[in-house]
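DATA SHEET
Item: assembly model
Revision: 1
Owner: S.N.
Input lines:
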Amino acid sequence: MDSFFTRYRNLLVLLAILLAQIIGLAMQVRRTDSGRNTVDAHDPPGVRLIRLWADAVVTPPEQLFHTSKLGTVSLWQNYLELRGVREQNKDLQKTIDRLRLEQASLIEDAKQGERLQALLDFQQRYIYKTLAAQALGSSGSDTSRVFYIDKGSANGLERDMAVITADGIVGKVREVFPYTAQVLAINDQTSGAGVILETTRIRGILRGNASGRLQIVGLLADQRIQPGEKVLTAGGDQVFPRGLPVGVVLGVAPDPERDSFIDVIVKPDAHLNQLDEVLVITSTEPRFSAEQQRDMAASEQLKGTEAAAIKDQQKASQIMAERLPGLTDPNAPATNPAASPATGNTMPGAAPAAPAAAPAPKLLPARRPDRFTPGATPATGATPTPEVQENKPAPKPKSNTSQPDTSGRNP
Amino acid sequence: MAVLGADHRRDYGIRHYPLLIYALTPLTALVLQAWLPHLLSAFFDLPLLVTIYFALVRRDSIQGTLMGGSMGIFEDALTHHAIGVNGIAKTVAGFLAGSVGVRIDVENHTIRLMLTFLLSLLCSAIYLFIYRVLLGMDLQWSWLTELAKAVGTSMFAMVLFPLLDRMQIRE
């Protein structure tokens, strides 16, 4: 018996270790209601402990590597970019001012949309608070597209919080440790995000395939889906707020498992393979954040300043207009009596003035009239008598300058 | 290929390394495996490489089994999959490398590269077998990716193996 163990020692050790791991695997897998086997989303305490240990061993050296890399890169970039930073700063300040003004109008629209949504009893979630984090390292396996960030439960992170960049969505927090967190990227096979195509409004579920490419799976074949169309989050998955950029459609491939279904290949907006900084959405609320409110106040103030400036300009124009000599007589009556039937100056039987006729401008009498003076008699020189003028209705002016008033002020 | 007897290899061919190398090399491999895909694509498997190397040069199946198992479990712990899938695959790879190391000339670079390439593919096959057959779970698979990974691992072996060879204790 002793010789048996000695002889097959290597093989027995192998079998013992394999058996232990197989039993461990069996304890982690469970059968769902649909009859499929799956790994529980929430790790059992023992498994979580192993993950915590592995994370505690790997994360400090990774942080060291990452900090060294960032330090070197930033040192070089700072040196290179310092020269043009002042001009860039001025440009950015101008852009901020312009964007604040634009934001004010957009926020007003958003407020209106919020009110309408409240009327429809629909809760729209806005990004309320985000937390910036550094991506440290990955799982190291192409079958598990997860990565680690340097913020954890100590920073207020929780499971299923959305992780984004300025370009687009990245993933969701899967596991939270005290000072780090594991993020499941959207291009993992087990990932899933509700998305919508911007133009066609077709909804679907986004996930990764074996090679890490993003695809919207299980869509019915539709000719309207064209490359280049934008893909946004649909907001129905309780993880990502609605309307965040996801990527653009690269093409369409037939579903290998089901006829008449297609998979839409999507190019992600975020650089999923080379992430440095990410934002974790720690809170989504149906209201505006304090920062947004500050921006709104600044925008309102800017708008007020601009409006005051415009008002001042208008006032100055009025003053200038009053001071400058004009063609119109300020003492003249407001309307032409001959043109208005309501004045009662028309003779009986005379044709009433056209109601659409605009009042002719009251021109000041010219000191030295000549043939170019408005209202002067052309070649014949016959000046119409005032009686005739009074009996005739005012002619319908073709324009303000070509039809002067002939109410007797002209010689 | 110079094939010698097991006793001959065991007596004269076992290499020894400083304790720090035994401790730091696997740890560095695990950290780099987690960190490098952040910069490059993950077409390599450094923990497997270290497992194969030490199992070969130590010519010990049990040591290869234990190292492969612990490295695999560590890798699994960093993923979101069940813990043990990589562990089983690398346990088998370590055992085979240790068993083969007794029988072949481990000084030959070509043999070591070929062995690394084959064990990398075997690891992938075991991984797929466990996932789909043993656990009965869905997993999309691309053999092209696994082939690229095996080639990448072999390329890393061309650099890492000679580097580790230099660190052995020479009597």
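QC remark: Residues 45-81 of chain A form the longest helix (37 residues).
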